[in-house]
Specification:
mainly beta, 679 residues, Ferric Hydroxamate Uptake Protein, Chain A, domain 1, 63% strand
Length: 679
């Protein structure tokens, strides 16, 4: 199969292609590859054709790699870890998104990027099968970078963004500081709301208006110094976020009253952390500490026909974490790593709700939730052959969640979390990865307290009886590298889920978050990165990806099987980039070729969220090596996003359908202008 075979695979959105599609030319690995190909090394020269400005630009061009910043809202450090290292270590900050860290490192400061597949001695993979390690040059260098960016919306509104960063590097000595500020709008749009009877007769028509405006101000500073025979990183982050939302509803036809909802929130937070690393001949010891504090205040007022409904909340939270790991490399086919983490988290929440000035009691309106959690782990990596790696890890998590306030309760949990990862290289350019793992999800402290959605007119109670959900996942990945920058990857995963978290009923008619039992989920994903150099278009790169998901869970009310809430069955993505004149000019597009559709299930209603395919284009110009100008045009389709609601008179298993509602809105198109200058 020749060129037409390649194009057939591309048109099929990365569907599995026969091996012959890539067989006419011997596959090329990266310019420098380890003999086992477990670690692929990409020197800075590999990215020269795209003339990247930052380490983030380079990571985005790394073949077969997708940046994952981690779950920054998770408690502890394991779940929050990204899949990118810098000089072998993760950034000591949890609040500082790794994408922002990479955007502050200029491409001129990067010596190489290592793509670690399946594990490598001395590298803490934190459960990931694929990790990128950015190696920064050690020569003395000082950099000052300024960015002035702005969103420009089709109604004339703007959202300015400013960034300023300073970096001084000299070997192991690094000093960094940065400032960030934005005053932008969020989900501001207009639309309609149509309510009908179950038979489709119109009940009410209304015009909707949404306006969301937020501001975010962040200051960061970090240092790295030699310390007590090792390397010490320390950082501090201060952030202040505020937001104001307004929703108006104007009745056009049918019964009902106009309504206005005003919401405001403020969220100051801070973080301090450190990481100390000491390298020895055959081992690496790492100690990380972290302290975070935050406060969130919220007030929402819904006014209709002269009567107010008011929901208020005040919450204070914090996190303290200490993590230690030690790896040992005795030589030969074995390497070992062990360690542990202890974390204390708390949330102190006070909520209140009133209708027409009369207080309405809420379940768990006043609550303090705390968790003391410890985790220990041991890992052994065995390479019985140069092309085979077996990674076995056992983690044991012990936690105690305590709750005081309207309800007092304390519960302990113990979860073993074993994992087996096998990586096999059957031939040059081919890799197979097999993973079997038990995973445990963290409880959301916010689910213990009452909450509101005034825009939809719903109040939810807190649930003191929540248990963590956990799962057993079996995954197989096939990876094929070709044509230096080309990668095809196929993933199949089956998951058995236990104590699934969804919506359950509470006494008094309130919805709450709770456990609904066992579920199954299957996912098949395919991705293709296709360089166009050998197809007649130099420095063109096409990226295709698709995923299909299927699941089955028993609905707690109806007893009937259904899909998991918020799971999208199918998604796909097409992206193309073209470098011109050695990266001095660059353009491209991105398109989500699916119509997003997800369902969620409350006690007295079923909601369906529907979103149009997205489309965006961009162009970039570098008139000088230290100056980058870029323009993105987003949301070009500007299709209608909709929330569909089937609202019942009571519990939907025994009550008749009351009405159907469709809220349809359009956000509008926008432009994003970026100017980046290395001073």
């Amino acid at each position: 199969m020749g060129r037409w075979g390649i194009w057939s695979c591309a048109v099929a959105l990365a569907a599995p292609c026969p091996p012959a599609a890539f067989a006419q030319t011997a596959p090329e690995t990266a310019p420098q590859a380890a003999a086992s190909q477990a670690v692929l090394v990409y020197p800075a020269s590999f990215f020269a054709s795209s003339n990247p400005g930052t380490a983030l630009d380079m990571i985005q061009r790394l073949p077969g790699f997708t940046l994952d910043v981690g779950d920054l809202d998770s408690r502890g450090l394991s779940g929050a870890s990204s899949n990118v290292l810098i000089d072998g270590s993760r950034p000591s900050s949890k609040s500082d998104n790794v994408a922002e860290v990479l955007s502050r490192i200029t491409a001129a400061s990067v010596e190489r990027i290592e793509l670690i597949r399946g594990g490598a001695p001395g590298i803490d993979m934190r459960g990931r099968a694929l990790v990128a390690n950015v190696i920064v040059k050690r020569a003395p260098k000082t950099e000052l970078v300024a960015e002035g960016n702005s969103y420009i919306y089709d109604d004339g509104e703007v959202g300015p963004v400013g960034k300023l960063s300073y970096t001084r590097r000299n070997g192991d000595r690094v000093t960094e500081a940065s400032l960030y500020a934005t005053d932008d709008r969020g989900n501001s749009n207009t639309g309609t709301r149509l309510r009908t009877t179950p038979s489709g007769l119109p009940l009410q028509a209304a015009a909707l208006g949404f306006r969301e405006r937020f501001a975010d101000y962040t200051a960061r500073a970090s240092i790295q110094r030699p310390f007590v025979g090792g390397k010490l990183q320390a950082n501090v982050v201060l952030d202040y976020f505020r937001q104001r939302d307004t929703q108006t509803t104007r009745i056009l036809a049918g019964p009902g009253d106009d309504e206005r909802v005003d919401e405001s929130s403020r969220y100051p937070n801070g973080e301090a952390g450190f990481t100390w690393t000491r390298e020895r001949a055959r081992s690496t010891f790492e100690l990380t500490g972290l302290q975070r504090l935050n406060r969130n205040t919220y007030r929402g007022v819904s006014n209709s026909a002269g009567s107010d409904s008011v929901f208020t909340s005040r919450a204070t939270g914090g996190e303290s974490v200490l993590r230690a790991t030690d790896s040992f490399r005795p030589g030969g086919a074995w390497s070992f790593e062990g360690g542990g983490e202890i974390a204390y988290n708390f949330l102190d929440s006070r909520t209140a709700y009133a209708e027409g000035g009369v207080a309405v009691p809420l379940p768990n309106a006043a609550v303090r939730v705390s968790e003391l959690r410890g985790e220990g782990f041991a890992q052994a990596i065995w390479k019985p052959a140069s092309k085979l790696t077996i990674d076995g890890t056992l983690r044991v998590e012990v936690s105690r969640i305590s709750q005081t306030g309207d309800f007092a309760r304390s519960r302990g949990f113990v979860f073993p979390k074993p994992k087996l990862l096998v990586t096999w290289l059957p031939g040059e350019g081919h890799q197979l990865r097999f993973r079997l793992e038990q995973e445990v999800d963290q409880l959301n402290f916010g689910d213990f307290a009452a909450s509101s959605d005034l825009a939809l007119g719903t109040i939810s109670g807190g649930n003191a009886d929540l248990r963590p959900s956990h799962s057993i996942a079996a995954e197989a990945v096939y990876e094929r590298r070709f044509w230096k920058k080309g990668v095809f990857e196929l993933t199949a995963r089956h998951t058995e889920l236990f104590n699934v978290i969804d919506s359950i009923p509470l006494t008094g008619g309130f919805n709450a978050t709770g456990n609904i039992g066992h579920a199954r989920s299957d996912v098949i994903k395919a991705a293709l990165t296709l360089p166009f150099d050998r197809l007649g278009l130099k420095d063109g790169l096409l990226k295709l990806s698709s995923a299909y998901r299927e699941s089955r869970v028993t609905d707690p009310l109806t007893g009937q099987p259904r899909r998991l809430s918020y799971q999208q069955a199918f998604e796909c993505h097409v992206g193309f980039t073209q470098d011109v004149k050695g990266g001095r000019f660059q353009f491209g597009f991105a398109h989500g070729c699916e119509v997003a559709r997800v369902n969620s299930y409350r006690i007295d209603e079923v909601r369906t969220g529907r979103g149009p395919p997205f489309a965006s284009v961009y162009g970039q110009w570098k008139p000088k090596s230290d100056l980058t100008l870029r323009l993105d045009l987003g949301n070009l389709v500007n299709g209608s996003s909709a929330t569909l609601r089937d609202v019942y008179a009571g519990p939907r298993d025994v009550s008749p359908l009351l009405f159907r509602e469709e809220r349809a809105t359009r956000r509008g198109r926008y432009a994003y202008l970026q100017v980046r200058k290395v001073l």
